[in-house]
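pinned: reference chain
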Amino acid sequence: MTFTTRTLVASLFLAASLTAAAQTPASNTTEWENEALKLRLFYPSDLVKSDPEKVLHDGHLTLFNIDNPKLAAETHCLRPALLLELPQSGPAQTTETQPSADGGTQVTIKPAITASILLAELDVDCLNAEHESSSTTLLADLAEIVTKVPGMKPIAQPSWYNVGWQKVHMAAAQGPAPTPPQTADQKDSQPIVPQPLYTMGLSTNWNSHLLVWYFSSNNIDTLNRITKTTVRFGRAEAAPLYPVPMGTAAP
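pinned: its structure tokens
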């Protein structure tokens, strides 16, 4: 099977799979409701709400703890509405040692799993004339910001699909996670191992509100878990925001 044929088959399968069917929210979820948006979410209960203002820096929204001037130009009209994060109760990374086949010792460093969900709304009054003239691409642009983060590369073809009757645009990317600063003693005792970052952006126009969800994790299985957060648009039945698992790109 040629690469083109495989791509076509995968695309047809994805298109057939990406109609999120209604389902009852899982028991291990927490409900969040915004009456102004007429929107309800049911997200994994191990995530906790944080102050959405913490993602703002100098008046613009900062994605994935990455502050970049070019990225700021893409996000300065976004207003955060909800921030969910996976709390860390232990060290940033742990080590495991076990004997190796040659009689030595193999050391494995495992980073703590991180995850976040950010819901933001585009402030249309903030848009300048240039953005307004290209309004037909606004929704796609919002989701595809994840592919413009420095160091990130797409892991899926951006696509449109339906959550019930609601049309949603998806983009996903992976790259290196930003490394937190360390003191000299920390660097000597246990240097930080580079971690991957997996992200997804989902955007939609709901009741004239241009909304976008940004998901991130350093673990692809966790990303796939949190993107199954279910949503209710108005009186519609609850359905997962992204119903199929996301893979990773080749190294």
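why pinned: Residues 1-16 have pLDDT under 50 and may be disordered. Residues 15 and 161 are 7 Å apart (CA to CA).
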